[in-house]
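Follow-up to my earlier ticket, as requested here are the two runs.
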Amino acid sequence: MSGPKWRFIDTGHRDGYTNMAVDEALLAACLKGLAPPTVRFYGWRPATVSLGYFQKLEKEIDVEACERLGLGIVRRPTGGKMVLHDDELTYSVIARQGQQIFPGDILGTYMVISQALVVGLKKLGVEARMIPHRKGEKRREEPRSAACFSVPSSHEVVVGGKKLVGSAQKRYLDGVIQHGSILIGLDLDKLVSVQKFKRPEHRRRMRDFLAGRMTCINEWVPDKVDFAQVAEAMRAGFQERFGDAMETSPLSPFEEELVEKFRETKYSTEAWNLRRESPVGV
């Protein structure tokens, strides 16, 4: 498939503030025409709870539980629900508007990226599929949860009817960023322990509910896989769907400078994470 050459970056495991700053720096460089469209893989150290942009930290997250478990907390620039980033590979896709590979709408972009994810998962032996878009379909009544993986949406990736990849997207006038979590392992007890519930029985009920809705790669392969193995398969999936080999390159000096700026003045601040004000970014 013709189109601009894609860049691939694996930034390894970083803290939550840095991970969000890197994604925004890549987007800023791309929007300025200083970087090509980019696929990035990364992990989280320490494990981190990320909030959707519109969620309320005090209402949704048990901060004391996060501190007790040594978890970081950061707000994403994208919407959606909270995610516990632990045993997973996170991807991000950053591109300018008008990339030939992407349709001009949110769901179309989700669809193309999910197709790449499905190809990569199948290379690991995981028979994943993409949820079709059914216009006008109403959601069933279900327990309230702050967690992203509680409700699969159109074009998201499932295995055995359970959600395996949770993604969020934000569109700008000139570009788009989508990032998402590909679960390698799954600790439901830890996931529900960091959410706020009014009563203990609500926590137990939510754990049972999520057990029927979420899954991970290592539940579907005979031998457990790790971050590096998943990264290799998923890169092949993106290359196959995007139709061209992706060139590996590090962050540019311009991007590195932006990472430090966004980390220190935005993603590590209470103003951002509590949404008392919105520090300027892209």
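Run two:
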Amino acid sequence: MKIYEMKMAPNPRRVRMFMAEKGILEQADFVELDLQKGENLTAEFKARNPMKKVPVLELDDGNCISETMAICRYFEETHPETPLLGRNALEKAQVEQWLRWIEFYFFLPTGMCFQHTSGYFKDRMTPVPEWGEQCRVAAQKFFHFLNQHLQGRDYIVGDQLSAADINALTTIDFNKVNKLAIEPEQTHLKAWYDRISQRPSAKV
């Protein structure tokens, strides 16, 4: 199987971390694309994903799966050990809850801040800097929210690593492009971040 990605982008990193925790990273060939050069906009790539985004998982039979969490769901089903999307009904629901919170209230404003303040994709979109700054504020608020939640907790959900931790960590790291980082007083978030960052999967 192949995974089309841009390694520096946050969504592909989420998939790589997920795969590394499953011990299946070496089962895929990774195909690097340059998004700024528009290598994701070709007709060939559009046939794999009409949304023209990375990552895309191409299976050996030619089937393609787009969207980060759809790819992770596929790997969760095909490689159920160690579970990263919950071990029982309650935990699965809680992981899903946190994945949505992180996606809508943290990852999305992080990405919009980057796109609308950096001009990285100005050749294919009209940046609105004021909107980007509003998104910066929203992302910054989620740092505080996570810090409060992580008081007395080792993981975002339950007593072991889940996709929620992976998605939160990669979003925090990507916020470096927005000049946002964990603040000194966010001690619970910093302790959690240091623990998760030390995992081998965080280095992929």
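The only thing I checked on run two: The CA atoms of residues 103 and 173 lie 15 Å apart. Let me know what else you need.
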